[in-house]
Every structure is written in C-alpha cells, then in structure tokens.
Design goal:
Strand content: 35-45%
Radius of gyration: 20 Å
Distance between the termini: 16 Å
Number of strands: 9
CATH architecture of the largest domain: Roll
Order of helices and strands: EEEHEEEEEE
CATH class of the largest domain: Alpha Beta
Helix content: under 10%
Length: 158
C-alpha cells in the first residue's frame, strides 16, 4: 500500500532548520505522528513529499516557506492597547486572541508603555516558523485505510 489521499499514515520524523541544523521537532522519542492524507491536517509540502511512499520507506526533503508555513507578512504585526494586557507582560510572551471566532496565537515583540493607562504592545501574528525553510527526515511506519471513508456520502471520493 502506498501513501495517497484518504489513507491514514503513521510516520516518525525529525524536523530541523537547514540553515542552522537546529531541531524544531522530532517524534523519535515518542509515538509516531498519525494523520489522514488529503484532509489538511499537515502543512502542504509535507504530505506532497510523502505521496507514493511505502511502509519502511525513508525520505528526506526540504520545504521552502511557500510549501510550509508561508512567508512572513508584515501586515500581521500590529499594535494593541497596553491596558488590554495583564500586569507583568514580557517580550517573547505568547498569547492567543479570538478573531471572528477563531483562535489566533501571537507573540509580544515590543512593549511601549506610556504614562498612565496608554501605550501599546506590538504583537506578531505570524506563525513562528513563517519565512523559514524546514528539513524533514521521515520514515513511513504504517499505512491504513481511513475507516471513516466507507460511507459513500463522506465526500472523500471513494
């Protein structure tokens, strides 16, 4: 069986930034990652690079930002009112806002308090890995059918 849409795939992976070799994530010390191909659960390039692979197959690939978390977007950096934040905020702290009912994580990149109750906090809503190339070493551990796709009305095309 090969990796293709609507297959449940288990993989072990080791991910690092190719410019520094810094590891950003790895499943090697825990259970394999499980996802259903074609359901939007993974970054686009990750799935695309695994299509056609078989159990025990190992692949190493580098994803440029447009196939991973996208490019940094300076319009996603915005100032918010200082009084909207709790006391004791610090640079690098991560928070989550709700925008149109969706969670939007962000990082504080600048704190500009003024006298009294004014001032701003500069927040970066870009994904932390936006703008970065990512290298993955992946081994396919298991491939199974997505049991939820047995219903002809599920929309999977089976």
């Amino acid at each position: 069986m090969k990796v293709e849409n609507n297959k449940v795939v288990k993989v072990h992976y080791h991910g690092y930034f190719p410019d520094t070799n810094e590891v950003f994530d790895s499943s090697l010390d825990r259970e394999p990652l499980t996802f259903t191909v074609g359901k939007g659960q993974m970054i686009p390039g990750f799935e695309a690079e695994l299509l056609g692979s078989e159990v025990s197959e190992k692949r190493t690939f580098t994803l440029e930002p447009d196939r991973a978390y996208g490019h940094r977007d300076e319009t996603r950096i915005t100032d918010m009112p200082f009084p909207d934040f709790p006391e004791g905020i610090e640079l690098g702290m991560k928070f989550q806002a709700e925008v149109n009912g969706m969670p939007m994580p962000f990082e504080i990149i600048s704190i500009n308090p003024d006298e009294g109750d004014s001032g701003t906090v500069t927040c970066d809503f870009n994904h932390p890995m936006a703008g970065k190339a990512l290298t993955f070493e992946v081994e396919v551990v298991e491939i199974t059918l997505d049991e939820s796709c047995n219903d002809p009305g599920c929309g999977c095309g089976n």
